Amino acid sequence: MGIGAIIGWIIIGLIAGALAKLIMPGDDPGGIIITILIGIAGAIVGGFLAGLIGIGGGGIIWTIIIATIGAIILLAIYRAVAGGRTARR
Q1: Cα–Cα distance between 19 and 26 in angstroms, integer?
Q2: In whole angstroms, what separates CA 65 from the centre of its chain?
Q3: Is 84 exposed, middle or buried (0-12, 13-18, 19+ CB in 10 A)?
Q4: Which of 23, 28, 40, 58 has its CA 20 to 30 A from that of 77?
């Protein structure tokens, strides 16, 4: 895995995180860095799940769609976990 692939994952993660934030607006316990990290992790999770059910592969648009779905899932989990911690203060 070269530096180009890592930069590609970061860019896809940034796009997926931003799209997930647009689809799921609201207050998040983290900032833009957390959104980017959730997007990158969402790209990984989405790609893994798509491969498991046999819909993996495709072009850049398909990759962004799958990454965004993964980011939405992770953002919902993050809000449930981190949001619950801040509400108990």
Answers
A1: 13
A2: 10
A3: exposed
A4: 58
12 by Cβ neighbours in 10 Å (0-12 / 13-18 / 19+) ranks as buried
pTM over 0.90? The answer is no
Q: Residues 55, 6, 25, 46: what is their CA dihedral angle, to the nearest 10 degrees? A: 20
Angstrom distance (rounded) from CA 36 to CA 54: 26
Which amino acid makes up residue 24? M
Look at the block and give the residue holding tokens 């999770």: 45
What the block records as the tokens of 21 is 């934030």
- Of the pLDDT bands very low, low, confident and very high (cuts 50, 70, 90), residue 49 is confident
User: For residue 50, how many other CB atoms are within 10 A of its CB?
Assistant: 20
Residue 6 has pLDDT above 50, yes or no: yes
Q: Check: CB of residue 47 under 8 Å from CB of residue 63.
A: yes
Q: Tell me the residue length of the chain.
A: 89
